[in-house]
Structures are given as structure tokens and as C-alpha cells.
Amino acid sequence: MLHDLLFGLSNDQALLAAVLLPFFGAVLLVLVGRWPNLRETVTLLTALCLFALTVSILGIHETGEVQKLVLFDVVPGVPLAFSVEPLGIIFGLVASGLWIITSLYAIGYMRGNNEKHQTRFYACFAIALGAAMGIAYADNLLTLFIFYEVLTLSTYPLVAHKETDEARRGARIYLGILLSTSIGLLLPAIIWTYAIAGTGDFALGGILDGKIDEALLPILVGLYMFGIGKAALVPIHPWLPNAMVAPTPVSALLHAVAVVKAGVFTVLKVTVYVFGVDFLAGTEASTWVMWVAAFSIVFAGIIAMTKDNLKARLAYSTVSQLSYVTLGAMLASGYGITAGALQIMMHATAKITLFMCAGAIYVATHKTELSEMDGLGRRMPWVYGAFTVGALAIIGIPPLGGDWVKLYLVMAATDSGEKYVIYPLILASLLSIGYLLPVVARGFFGNLGDRQEPAPQFNDALPREDRIKAHPLTVIAPVMTAALCLATIFMVEPLKHLIAPLLGGH
Questions:
Q1: Phi, psi at 500, each rounded to 5°
Q2: DSSP letter at 458?
Q3: Has residue 112 been placed in a domain?
């Protein structure tokens, strides 16, 4: 019956259901909130159904059928509308697929840490996923902007979840930066686009060629790239590390499932469907933002190395890694767009693994500082093993996903005549080794806190009774996503095939 319900939908029905299902799930979560087991069952079922819908949308897209749904005009002549295209499918699959694993993890984390307000947490989480789906399938700039703002507002209570002074301060910074950039920069860019192009509908090849003075084009590029605050370019990045006061499942949502991926997805979508890759490539309008992205990659990597708090270290790593997508887009090359799309998928699986591991360590030991974690790898081998896989994927050790991203970025830099961009990429790789591998090394080889002797070799295993037992779901979930990190090796070619129609002759 469930199969018939999900896969028997028409094109329009499947598209609308994918956007509305998480919102419906949020309402249901509030209604059943007093029964924890039922509430968590609803969360998992909603996540599973959303992923099934997203897979069905991919199947319809592969047949060549057009999937577009126009609901009503928000303002005269500008409708709330949804459509399906390759980048949206990638973002939808990443967000909906990882929601399943994040939900499993959140159950273990919230219970293991005895968190309060769990119903509010799960409901806001579901609304955030609904907003992410609206962004993924937006057919025009106004629809995207509406759901972009819904995502910001729905995640504010999640950042402030602990309701401490520190949490409220972090949430205010989060909300202030994201709203000020979107309303102060992104919205004017959208209005400007409608004014000069006569439309905000996404169109392959862009809608601005021949409609804007090329002398003004760098300004519009800057308004979009900095107005998309969720992409966390320096200097509008502070919202992201300040949001680390939230519970770890929220950090996973911010860094992997929805928020930052919504940002870099929007960067790619605007580049491909508003500016057009060929139009940007024929100008130098994006060059200055390209160098801002290159600087962001290196700057955030340097800051990450100075952080002893593990979540803060991972947060600055995210700022660095997100800028790979912006860099790829601003190189205005088919290789760059390919690198950006790969980075959305690869970084999501790797970074969610790292944050889940950090959360598992916290739930089991209440340790947050790297300097306190010596020897924990031998007490929590599964957690640290998963962290190792995620770290190697971020660093880009062949043949893991990060290696492919950097390869395509190098090809994009060469193709675009920007060979000097390769040097920041090399430096960033060295920096990622410097801020990620010490976590692994100290965990497996560092002194145990109560024994004060180093492990003479990697396989100096502890007896099972000496191991730290975290909540099983906080261990199972990162092991699953670590396996996905390995599986991304086999997803490169299918992803390239999916986005090939966007690249034309590139």
C-alpha cells in the first residue's frame, strides 16, 4: 500500500508531496509529542517516505519527463512554482537520505544526553527539511528565497535549543547574519534580476546575457554570493562557528543535511540558471569572488588548526570546505560545476560522520576539547574508526570523494586560465591534514587519562570491559555514514551523467 501511495503519484503530486511531507510530519510530531516512542517512529517514517519520494522523482526525471508545478502567484506574474532539474535532485537526495541517518543518531543522542524539549527539536528539524526540499525544487528566484528564509527561521530554535545564555547569543548571531545578508543583499539581487531580465525563472544558460551592463555584473555577482550567507564566505562566516552551541544533531543538520548545503546549492543554481556558465566565462565578473573563495578556503583552515574544541575545529573546517563549491562555480567552467556538485555529496557524508563522532564522544564522556581526548580511540574504536574515514575523505586521500573534487577543481582552474588558484588548493589540503589527523592520532596513540602510558602500536587493543560504551545509535549512525563515504567512490560517474545536460560543451 505504501509503495502504491508513494510511487503511484503523478509527476505533479510527487513533487508537491516531496515539499509538503516534512511539514505534515512536523504537525504530526507535535500531536504525538507526549509519546516519545511514537514521536520517534513518526520522525523515521517521515524521513523514509521523503527519501522514497525523492528516488521516485529521480526515476521520473531519468525517463525525460518534465516535472513542473505552478501553485499560485505570490505577486502578480510571479508564482510559487516548483520544478525538477539535476542539481535539485542531488541536493534532494543528499538531504532526504541523510535525514534518515541523522534521525537515528538524534534519537540516541537526545535520549543518551537527556535533552529537554525533544518534540520541539524533532518538529523544527522536520520543518527545516521541508524548507530544504522547497529550495531544491524551486522553479524561480522568489520561490527559492521564500524557502531559504523558512530554513533560517526554522533552525533558529534548534541553535538556541539548550536555552543557555551562550546558546541564545549564538542563535542571535546565527539569525542576525543570515537574515541581514539575505534581506540586505540577496533580496536586492533578486529584485534587480527581475527588473532587468523580466523574469526570475531558472533557465539553463542563464537569463542575464545581453540584459546587464558588464561593468555592473561584478556587483550583481557579489550581491548574490555574499547574500547567500549560508555558503559562509569570509567575512560573513561567523554565524557558523557561533551556531556550534547547538546539540550535535543540529550541527549535523547545519553542516551536512540542510543549511550549508542549501547555501552552496543556491550558489551553483544561481551560477548555472541565472548567470549562465558561458556568460560568466566570457567576462571577468566572477574573478574577484573566486579569489575571496580561495582566501576563505585557506583562512578558515588556518583558524581550524588553532581550535582545541572539536566542534569548533570542525566548524571552521566546514567554512573552508564550503568555499570549494563557490570556487568551482566562480571558475565558470564545466569542471568547476562538476566539482561543486561532487563536493555537495562528498562533504555531506564526510562532515556528518565527523560531527556524529564528536557527539558520540560527548554523550559517552562529556569531553569537548581535543586536549582531553588522548587515548579515547582505543576505548571507542568504532567511533574513531568512522572519524578516520570521514577525515580521509575530507582531506582527499585517493580514491575517496575529496580527491575527485580537488582533481576537478584543478582541471577547472586550468580550463579557465586561473592556474594560480591551484596553490591555495594545495595549501588547503595540507591544512586539512593538520587539523583532522591529530584528532585520529591522539585518539589512537595518545596517553590514556587514567593509565598515563602511550600505546606502543595501533593494535594495542583494550579489553572490552575497559571500552567506553556510548548509546548504540550514536555509534551505528556514524559507522553508516562512514560507509557512505567509501561508497561515494562509485557515485562519481552517475553524478557526472546526471549533471551532463547542464554542461553542454564544457
A1: -55, -40
A2: T
A3: yes
Q: Is residue 437 part of a domain?
A: yes
pLDDT in tens, 255-280: 667 888 999 999 999 999 999 999 99
Q: How far apart are CA 100 and CA 479, in angstroms?
A: 14
In a domain, 386, yes or no: yes
User: pTM value?
Assistant: 0.91
Grid cell locating 10: 503523478
List, in order, residues 6 or more apart from 63 with CB less than 8 Å away.
none
Task: Judge whether 457 lies within some domain.
Answer: no
> What sign does the CA torsion over 476, 482, 487, 493 have?
positive
* Cα–Cα distance for residue pair 256/34, rounded to 1 Å: 29
Full domain range(s) for residue 239: 1-199+209-449+468-502
Query: Which residue(s) pair with 73 in the sheet?
Result: 79
The three-point CA angle 20-481-494 to 5° equals: 75
Q: What pLDDT digit, counting tens, does each position of 143-152 carry?
A: 999 999 999 9
Strand partners, 69: 82
- Other residues' Cβ atoms within 10 Å of the Cβ of residue 472: 11
Give the separation between CA 392 and CA 322, rounded to whole angstroms: 17
Overall number of domains in the chain: 1
